[in-house]
Amino acid sequence: MTRKQKRLAIIGSGMGFLAVAAGLTFYALGQQTSYFYMPADLLAQQAAASERIRLGGLVQQGSIERGEGTHVKFVVADSENEVPVVYDGILPDLFREQQGVVIEGKMGPDGVFVADTVLAKHDETYMPREVADRLKQEGLWEQK
Amino acid sequence: MSVELGHFALVLALALSLVQAIVPLLGARVGSSSLMRVGEPAAITGFALIALSFAALVLAYVQSDFSVLNVWENSHSAKPLLFKITGAWGNHEGSMLLWVLILAFFGALVAAFGQNLPPTLRANVLAIQGLIATAFLLFILFTSNPFIRLEPAPIEGRDLNPILQDIGLAIHPPLLYLGYVGFSISFSFAVAALIDGRMDAAWARWVRPWTLAAWAFLTGGIAMGSYWAYYELGWGGFWFWDPVENASFMPWLAGTALLHSAIVMEKRSALKIWTVLLAILTFSLSLLGTFLVRSGVLTSVHSFASDPARGVFILAILVFFIGGALALFAIRAASLAPGGLFHPISREGALVLNNLLLTTAAATVLVGTLYPLALEALSADKISVGAPFYNLTFVPLFLPLLVAVPFGPLLAWKRGDLPGALQRLQFAFWAAGAAAIASYFLIDRASAVAALGIGLGLWLVFGAVTDLAIKSGIGKVGAAVALRRLAGLPLSMFGTCLAHGGLGLTVLGIVSVTSLQAENILTMQPGQSTEISGYTLRFKDLRPFTGPNYTEDRAEFEIGTDRGGSLGELVSSKRLYTARGMPTTEAGIRTMGLSQLYVSIGDRTEAGLVVRIWWKPFVTLIWIGALVMMGGGFISLMDRRLRVGAPSRRKAPVAVANEGKS
Questions:
Q1: What is the value of pTM for the model shown?
Q2: pLDDT in tens, A20-72
Q3: How far is A110 from chain B (nearest CA, A)?
Q4: How far apart are CA A88 and CA A65, in angstroms?
């Protein structure tokens, strides 16, 4: 092979890898990302039951109900809307009433959100950013 | 007083780094050796000044001087001494100061040990280092000054974020920064070569040890960060594909590629342009990481609240250095003479494959990290990209690389013999294959994928050992001769073996814990027992306990074997740090062999205490493998041929021949 052919071979295989990587990336972005919703969005535009989504909001005052074992029920709310949530597992340290949370899971057919992950942040003055942004828009934000 | 002294030293360091950025560059341009020689004293004095400034900050923390805003925000007089010291870099301002300190440290090393570098190259390298230091010192002094005073001084501080009150903060950030920032040297060398328009094998011999050192530190830093998150967060996960983690992982991938392409450049003087580009990209990814972590643009489980206004400043630094270096590259790269030829099946070919796979894998991580930010900026849609994305993109690209790793060192330069290499690797292949089949049939929960993963990890380990065995002639010559030959092999070969074998150990750990771990969540009353993977765990009691700056509820468990023997106690607790009123979970971990029993406790309910128990088989291999990789890097560094300063003493026919041509 001449120098030119070898260079072409290297560039060609490099392009090949890039094409594979790009293909995988586009496929995965279509399949494996989850959109962020607030309760209002979720009630307005019914998400498909199979779609994995992230729901953010405040844990409503007095809504935390512990069931048997590690089952827990609570309500995630924004200014006007609320979504009931069920979860089975250990809640993060900073999970409490009136605290911003982001939960991941799927919307059940009965309108109850089935969570598989509950995220609260490390810092007690820190809100999940998506939640903080929306609360500011809605005028519910209180700077601590 | 010492605080003002530290502040003043920082301002002086800024002035000095400006001198370091301009004068040697000018000297190299006009060919004045006296101007060029300004670089070294400037770099060393600059480092001393920044070290003084850093010491002043640490002193303010040790003395709990709450008249300093930064100390008041992040410290508490009741904190143990170690956490007072580490707290100095457990916040934005202090950690930026540590960043610059390490940058200046590397610059001073080049100044001190670079005596036999060509003078113009040394001057240019120091000037670029000075320029980077100038940018970041400006950033610190204008947006993130740790020396701002508070009037009147509060009596007590607000305490450090409890998650950070851990020995991990003493180890992880310094190691990580030594890696991240260490790549600035490769970057400066690349830019200096572009300014000079001259690059030869000697250049690669200079860049390799710096890259290797930075890579080894970064490997250790990432591993320590991963272990820290594993035990401190109480979720039992070792890697979350969180943007903050990706920020350190991308430079690692690019740095690994650079490490390998620099070998080709040194030995065969091929891949010059590519190596320069990689050196620029690696440090650019470090800068990008600094931007992502320090600007607060991310929604991230690791990100602490910080000021977004700073982001714009770092973004400007980012654009200036990356844009400037790439523009210079576009103008000058063509002037670098092309290197030697090689056949696709050869050591060079294998290293090119390594580079292609590593860089495309890094690119998928980059897309996964930045895409949500870009989408949000453009369309206000908010999405999150997590593990499933990387399992579909990064993993398929990384697997062929892992399969190919053992072949590389066994192929000859220029033209290799693939069937020959296969034949020499047959022992490793059959041994790994047998282990995979055995684990599929013998281990309860092992799926076919898990068995293949175990086989892959062992293939890497056996392949690495095979390489050494073949090079020392084991099996071909007598045992005594083989042993003598083994002892006589260059240290860098042991380094390669350890790095590749360590990668195999990490793969084994990851496969084993993701596919074979057992998990149990339940509610327990004192006296109750539960069972997991052949161990019993009896919940003894929940007791209150008071620490120096926290109170906690400690759950005590007794570990037993299924035959009734006792393995002692395990304590997991829920802490409340009083100053911030912030709760944390302290996991209870018992290491047994290479595996771990991991217990973290949740809330108390009427039914009892919520307890989460994991059995994590061979989990420690993940970090042990990384430490072995790091050790491989350092052993390789001790090789005489690579030692800093050695190039002038070594006969370098390639370099001479090449210099003659250019």
A1: 0.90
A2: 888 888 888 877 677 778 888 777 776 566 677 888 888 888 888 887 777 88
A3: 25
A4: 12
Q: How many CB atoms lie within 10 A of CB B638?
A: 12
Q: How far, rounded to the nearest angstrom, does the alpha carbon of residue B646 sit from its chain's CA centroid?
A: 27
Inter-axis angle of helices B119-143 and B2-30, nearest 10: 140
Q: Which residues from chain B sit within 8 angstroms of residue A125, using beta carbons?
A: 305
Q: Is B59 exposed, middle or buried (0-12, 13-18, 19+ CB in 10 A)?
A: middle
Highest mean pLDDT among B95-109, B288-302, B377-391, B428-442: B95-109
Q: Work out the widest C-alpha separation in chain A, in whole angstroms.
A: 76
Residue, of B249 and B385, whose pLDDT is higher? B249
The helix/strand/coil state of B595 is strand
DSSP E strand boundaries for B479-593? 518-524, 529-532, 535-546, 550-561, 566-577, 582-586, 588-592
Cβ contact A70–B522 (<8 Å): yes
Environment class of B554 (CB within 10 Å of its CB; exposed 0-12, middle 13-18, buried 19+): middle
CA within 13 Å, CB half, B598: 27
Whether residue B371 and residue A18 make contact (CB cut-off 8 A), yes or no, is no
Is B344 in CB contact (< 8 Å) with chain A?
yes
Q: Which two tokens stand for residue B455?
A: 């086989």
Q: What is the DSSP letter of B517?
A: -
Average pLDDT over residues B309-322: 87
Residues B140 and B133 sit within 8 Å (Cβ to Cβ): no
Among B residues 372-401, those touching chain A with beta carbons less than 8 Å apart = 372, 381-386, 388-389, 391-393, 396-397
DSSP states along B83-131 = HHHHGGGSSHHHHHHHHHHHHHHHHHHHHHH-TTS-HHHHHHHHHHHHH
Cα separation values, B28 from B31, B36, B662, Å: 5, 6, 19
Measured CA to CA, the distance from residue B302 to residue B226 in angstroms comes to 12
